[in-house]
Amino acid sequence: MTEEIIIAGFGGQGVLSMGKILAYSGVMADQEVSWFPSYGPEMRGGTANVTVILSENRISSPVLNEYDTAIILNQQSMDKFEGMVKPGGVLIYDPNGIIHPPKRTDINIYKIEGTLIAAELGNVKTFNMVVLGAYLKAKPVVKMESVEKGLQKSLPTRHHYLIPMNLEAVQKGFESLELVQAV
Amino acid sequence: MGELRLMKGNEVIAEAAIRCGCDAYFGYPITPQSEVMETLMDREPWDETGMVVLQAESEIASIHMIYGAAASGKKVITSSSSPGISLMAEGISYIAGAELPCVIVNVQRGGPGLGTIQPSQADYFQSTKGGGHGDYRLIVLAPSSVQEMNDFVELGFQLAFKYRNPAMILTDGVIGQMMEKVVLAEYIPRLTDEEINEKYGSWATNGRKANRQRNIITSLEMDSGRMEKNNIRLQEKYTKMEEEEVLFEEFSCEDADYLLVAFGSSSRICQKAVDLAREKGIKVGLLRPITLFPFPKKPIAALAKQVKGMLVVEMNAGQMVEDVQLAAGCAIPVKHFGRMGGIIPSPGEVVEALEQKLIGG
Fold first, then answer.
1. Is B352 part of the contact surface with chain A (CB cutoff 8 Å)?
2. Residues with Cβ < 8 Å from B198, sequence gap 6 or more?
């Protein structure tokens, strides 16, 4: 099994760290992983994206032109990446800030109210973990215990007290994924 | 087996330098390789192994600090990205002329000039054909994974000391910035002053002992006759590298009708392109030079007798393609496909180029 994912949104939304935690979760589950970020000025307020690949086999290209799953968190990324989801693939988006919802009819589309849920949880910084949880509902590529181990591995020890709050956000996202269109 | 980690290529260069018993790093920050020095500063190896890490005032200063430290037999490394390597070019030529070992890492970005901070492979000519002045060569290693960023640091030092010649790790923003699993090397202790004297005392300027002549390190020789002899010695060294140090890797070449040739991050993209093309029924193989100097001429010449054409894929306007054409000869078409200025070609584009430039044409 190989899962090729693009996560795209604004810098500051936690796009890169979400990819990193997913990659660490893959390592914890003994998978091959690659994580390739957009880097440079776009990270600081502009659009940011990261390609994450999880696989049982050796990973060839870390750079792709089509994806099994696109997680889209702003309009610019919708414009850029909607067309790059493989037919039959998955697109997950947060409707907050999306003016033009996806139009493709040959892919599975899901919504997650990540911004709202994170605000309800009382910490908007858990937004990316809510989205991660939603993704894992649509595509159970790693188990929840691997995510917990991934968080332990990727967060510095001084931030470990935040892990329960993050796991709660992942769980909430997992429960809140809405199906828009199935093919 | 060593320690398994998930790390960026740049971070791994730093970690590998500490672990292989490096004596010093001198450098100056530049995107996309700044994590090398950031990681070193964060790790504080001066407390652990005694390794010196210094941010110099410029790339020019860094490379001359490398020159000085290498002259005393120390194991020293620097890193930069394309414009910074251009600034170092004079020093690199001096180090090659003075026959000193060191490792230089170039995490390439798009040029020319200040260019862009996005990945590129446009420094192939600079790395393999000169860059600085004079008839010198660098040993050039092109890693294609984060694991090889680890492995090639110590390999680079081994070759650099074997030939008393600078070795370059030629990589780019893709491998430098991406994270992959890596098995880190075991620690090798730094050499003591006595060990350096024993191993390199015949040339290093580490304090003249009573029982030997003064060692002189210089690239200057005013007598043309002697200077030509120095050049001949250098050329003999480069010929020996070509005979003994060529490294390359082949993928799906056994039954290939067409061949992709690519190094570093492009070779990763081409591995995927090979899979995509084979799904379409096109029998394609991939040859990946690991050493760019010495260049794998013989395996390319051998495959030129087997395949109907070659496509050289590089993130530049066509540089390595010239070496592939020389090795392959004129019997088959050797074409180039590349993107420039920091754009990374996708596996799909490579297959399209293969169909248009070789199969269709």
1. no
2. none
Is B347 in Cβ contact with A64 (below 8 Å)? yes
In terms of C-beta distances under 8 Å and separation of at least 24 residues, what long-range contacts does B202-208 make, across chains too?
A: B203/B73, B203/B99, B203/B164, B204/B71, B204/B72, B204/B73, B205/B71, B205/B72, B206/B72, B206/B73
The CATH number that applies at residue B320 is 3.40.50.920
Specify the pTM.
0.95
ipTM value for the complex:
0.92
Residues A78-132 have pLDDT tens digits of: 999 999 999 999 999 999 989 999 999 999 999 999 999 999 999 999 999 999 9
For residue A178, give the nearest of A118, A120, A131, A125 by alpha carbon.
Answer: A131
Query: Of B135, B156, B183, which marks where a domain is finished?
Result: B183
Count of all residues that appear for chain A in the document: 183
Q: Which residues of A touch B271 (CB under 8 A)?
A: 60-61
Interface check B55 vs A, CB under 8 A = no
Query: What one-letter code names the amino acid at B84?
Result: G
Q: Is residue B240 part of a domain?
A: no
Decide: A173 and A129 in contact? Cβ < 8 Å: yes
Q: Are B285 and B239 contacting, i.e. CB atoms less than 8 angstroms apart?
A: no
Distance from CA of B115 to the nearest CA of A (A): 13
Type of residue at A155: L
